[in-house]
Amino acid sequence: MTLTRKGQATRERILEAAAELIAQRGVAGTSTEDVRKAAGIGGSQLYHYFDSKQALIRAVITRQAEAPLVPGQPIMGALDSFDALRAWADAAVEHQERNSGRGDCSLTALAGELGPTDDQAREDLCQAFLRWQSVLHDGLGTMRERGDLRPEANLDELSMALLTALQGGNLLSQTLRTAAPLRASMNAALAYVRSFT
Amino acid sequence: MTLTRKGQATRERILEAAAELIAQRGVAGTSTEDVRKAAGIGGSQLYHYFDSKQALIRAVITRQAEAPLVPGQPIMGALDSFDALRAWADAAVEHQERNSGRGDCSLTALAGELGPTDDQAREDLCQAFLRWQSVLHDGLGTMRERGDLRPEANLDELSMALLTALQGGNLLSQTLRTAAPLRASMNAALAYVRSFT
Q: How far apart (Å, rounded) are the C-alpha atoms in residues A165 and A69?
């Protein structure tokens, strides 16, 4: 479907409203009717853009996946030095400090919330996670080439360790409503990367 | 409410059925009527044990919280040596290898699935996570006293790093349907602990 500029703006408004409602109420607690009202659009217009709740949720996942690795931050440059990784970790912790308990529409939250049977949405989430992992993988690869990391550093494992630290830390931080879990998980993952210098 | 032995068995049967259904369909996709049917009990009998779906979900959380840190394993002894921690990590990875993609009713999954507004259930989850953290904290404390870890090892941070590794690894492994994320996260967390020897 090709959208006019106005159509694109409406679509974006719907997605923003959906992400905000999901952050407050969860996927299950958000109906397409709620989203329609929150976006301030009329009658059947929502179905012009998304023909089902599932289609809407998948579009929210895609939108969140295109966000930078730390929500609320401008898109970061390559994560290809210890300084850049540290800045990324600090930004994630700061974001969590500001937002703990305020609701969350991150992919971490969406991954937990999606029923285990929603295979299409799960596939979208996989793609998003793998894309984020590849950003980390690329950065670590540059560091290894430069000699910051030893040749035996396993880039698959290191990049996955950084990504799981972000997700696990965010999950615990959202539940416990403190940034401490994320701070601990990021410190551990960065120390692990540093152990390969 | 004091239950007879038969009543306790029925209650346990209901909780087992609920955990199984939640693993397959998620919290939102599981109705009390589904649980009643799966547990094979009649009419209003479920409400004798749980007066609402929320009460049932909270009881499932409490039940999962009493399970050992690695589901499917017998309750482990104290995690107070590198060998014990390694065995714990290996058991978690093995469990994930057997179960990836088969549905999950772990606290990781429940933490993601609960709507952000369900404060009582969130409180139960917090207690469960903090109890698990305290098991890890105690074991690390013993290791530090014994001299396996340096005096400056921060037990709060190390125990939280291990717990976030388990949760983040499980979350990514369930989504990606491979044990690789959990293996990476546990390796990183254990290496972090080892860096304090």
A: 12
